[in-house]
Design goal:
Length: about 700
């Protein structure tokens, strides 16, 4: 119903736009001899459909260029990451530019749906062009403190960053530290009352994180080179309880990563080469101590160019290939296990325009637009892609078909179909088995909630998953001065041998997978094996809808500016076949733990002067979790609807730099889960559901975070 209402709203906006006011004849074109018209600096080859100018960027009050990009993507490209280019061209690693402060961004161009094909992206995707200032430099830092209103733990973090930009040359240096204390069951009396054996047990772990990053991009004539190096250390420590008493689990992960890239043009091809090398050392302490060393090398090459087309425009050709090699060494239980894996893949895609979009009045002869019965067909293109993959876990090929249609300005429709083979990751296959954090689950066999140990790690027997998907997407807008935008997508996915890791503790599931559930002599569930496995098959269908409003900004006026975004997901089908003789699980009906049929999210942002308020909401429809596959019964769980509000207030002290509002200092107050809501449920017969006490599913609750940032 919500999707239907948003659909009607979107078509209403389109209808308003479809009846334009009478316009005067266009003025005659005046040709001035000896006058050269220069292209706009940083402009993309395709004209933008919408543009964020300096005033709009400042009004968003984002913390970084990446934050501004994220807000724009939520409005114009929900659910499909855009291709990001810098100053009109592809960069080896666009992410090195995203940490810049937002006033380093001169404008953001949103290209039409379907423009991504020209840059090696999806035939239905968009391109976001980030046009940066010619010169920019900044030093900034931020301190953050956070804690739940119920107390129990605290989180402290600090970030320092230095950035320098000159044209496309950039240097970014970033240092990040974070320290989080543990939340114990003793700090939540309601939890301890429901689970009296959990004294001194960690509900959330103690953790520390430290990272240093250096990122560079340099212009080499018409080429660009990037280097991104980082080092990090993450440690966590938690306390669990088993039959022998308290057990301390700890992990320490050290990671080193180097990414490099090169992009430019050669022989009419736009080329991009990327290399990645990583090294990880993971040390785990507990009942099963282990040390794992992982090393990975990978390389990728992408080529794209334009060829003469059929009269409606050039044909876009995209070719890519990648290869990787991984080595793993694990020491556990006095034994050493060594493994090495390799994988390679290639992909090719062509996009053929069949008809150009209808031109503006007076320029009909400038475009190759097909007409049917005198009616312009608008812009139309089709794409075909194919690829292959070879891995130690299996090989196969892929096929992609797509079409993009723009019957009129600001109205786009796209369709796609694909068949792919996805190999399991090395972590899914070779991560050492170890005890994970305890979890509270509802045991349908005994009708009680129990805190169980978990076994996590890899499964070397995993095989590649084969999937087939189709999607139909509609994009309308932006219309009117309020920039009303509407997007709706219908998707279908079928998978064979997909990777899964969760099994609901029902009598049928336990009978089919007895090796994944461990009970003590009294029949109490004490451990669940959460290591991944291949499910036989799955099928999902969903309808996603978004609606956005972005009123104009007057940089000279003192009136407030605001934006609104609505998102809705309606799951139409969600079925899984686990195998081993189990019936097909209809998760929307409640099998396999069940899943909600609808999600609704919204954001409202309002800014006036130095103060910006962001309100974010999320609602999830209630659902059933069955005790017996395929049957409703009194022992089923009825999970209630869940709604949550987050509030963030940001007060900024600005200083004027070359006509732009550059942030001098920032004070930010964020309240997550404003009304302190918690997941709740009852049994189907109306009785209270064990394991759904106030702190059982979310022991943190409302959380307050304060950030102080300063530009130096």
């Amino acid at each position: 119903m919500i999707s239907l209402c948003l659909t009607l709203a979107g078509f209403s906006a389109a209808a308003v736009q479809a009846t334009p006011a009478p316009q005067a004849d266009p003025p005659p074109v005046t040709v001035l001899p000896d006058v050269e018209v220069a292209a706009r600096r940083g402009a993309a080859r395709t004209p933008p459909q919408y543009e964020y100018d300096a005033a709009r960027i400042d009004a968003l009050a984002g913390a970084s260029v990446g934050d501004v990009l994220g807000q724009a993507a939520r409005q114009f490209s929900p659910g499909q990451p855009p291709v990001v280019i810098i100053n009109g061209v592809r960069m080896p690693d666009p992410s090195v530019f995203l940490d810049l402060p937002p006033d380093a961004l001169e404008r953001l161009e949103v290209l039409p749906a379907g423009s991504a094909a020209e840059y090696g992206g999806s035939p239905s995707g968009r391109v976001f062009n980030l046009v940066l200032q010619r010169s920019f430099a900044s030093r900034d830092g931020a301190l953050t403190a956070a804690a739940p209103t119920a107390g129990g733990f605290r989180e402290l973090s600090a970030t320092a960053r230095q950035s320098r930009l000159q044209d496309r040359n950039i240097t970014n240096l970033t240092l990040t530290l974070r320290d989080v204390s543990a939340l114990l069951a003793d700090d939540r009396p309601a939890y301890l009352r429901d689970h009296p054996d959990s004294a001194d047990v960690s509900l959330t772990p103690e953790s520390r994180f430290l990272s240093a990053n250096a990122a560079f991009n340099r212009s080499l004539g018409d080429w660009a080179a990037s280097l991104n190096a980082s080092a990090s250390q993450t440690s966590s420590r938690s306390t669990t309880r088993d039959a022998d008493g308290l057990t301390v689990l700890s992990t320490d992960t050290r990671r080193w990563e180097v990414r490099s890239g090169l992009s430019g043009s050669v022989l009419d091809w736009t080329a991009q080469v990327n290399l990645l090398a990583t090294a990880d050392v993971v040390e785990a302490e507990g009942p099963t101590p282990s040390q794992t060393d992982l090393m990975s090398w990978s390389g990728a090459v992408a080529l794209n160019r334009s060829l003469p087309g059929l009269g409606a425009g050039p044909i876009a050709v995209n070719l890519s290939a990648d290869a990787n090699r991984n080595r793993t060494r694990t020491e556990a239980g006095g034994e050493t296990d060594r493994r090495a894996t390799t994988a390679s893949a290639w992909q090719g895609q062509i996009t053929v325009p069949l008809s150009q979009p209808a031109p503006p009045p007076g320029l009909e002869g400038e475009a190759k637009t097909l007409k049917i019965g005198g009616v312009s067909l608008g812009g139309l293109s089709v794409s075909l892609g194919a690829g292959g993959r070879d891995t130690d876990a299996g090989g196969g090929n892929s096929l992609d078909l797509g079409a993009a249609w723009q019957p009129r300005d600001k109205v786009s429709l796209s369709a796609s179909w694909n068949r792919t083979l996805t190999a399991p990751s090395d972590l899914d296959r070779f991560a050492p088995p170890r005890q994970g954090p305890n979890a509270v689950v509802y045991d349908f066999r005994t009708g009680e909630a129990v805190e169980v140990q978990t076994l996590v790690g890899g499964n070397p027997d995993l095989t590649a998953a084969r999937s087939e998907g189709a999607a139909l997407n509609l994009s309308l807008g932006p219309f009117t001065r309020w920039s009303v935008g509407f997007n709706q997508g219908l998707s279908l996915a079928r998978t064979r041998d997909g990777i899964s890791s969760s099994l609901q503790p029902t009598p049928q599931t336990e009978a089919a997978y007895p090796d994944r559930f461990l009970r003590d002599a009294s029949g109490r569930l004490v451990r669940i094996d959460l290591r991944p496995f291949n499910a036989t098959a799955s099928e999902t269908r969903s309808l996603t809808t978004s609606l956005s409003l972005n009123p104009p900004v007057d940089p000279e006026a003192s009136a407030a500016t605001w934006t609104v975004n609505l998102f809705h997901t309606w799951r139409l089908t969600d079925r899984t076949e686990l195998g081993r003789g189990l019936p097909v699980l209809d998760r929307l009906a409640g099998d396999g733990g069940g899943v909600s049929g609808q999600d609704l999210g919204w954001t409202l942002s309002r800014m006036k002067g130095p103060l910006k308020i962001d309100v974010t909401g999320r609602w999830t429809a209630g659902y059933r979790s069955r005790a017996t596959i395929g049957e409703d019964g009194p022992a089923d769980l009825r999970i209630s609807d869940f709604a949550r509000l987050d509030l963030k207030a940001t007060y900024r002290l600005f200083r004027d730099v070359s006509g732009r509002r550059a942030e001098g200092a920032r004070l930010e107050l964020s309240i997550q889960n404003l009304t302190d809501e918690r997941p709740s449920a009852r049994l189907a017969d109306g009785a209270p559901a064990p394991g759904y006490g106030r702190d059982s599913r979310d022991p943190v609750g409302r959380r307050i975070e304060i950030t102080l940032g300063k530009r130096f």
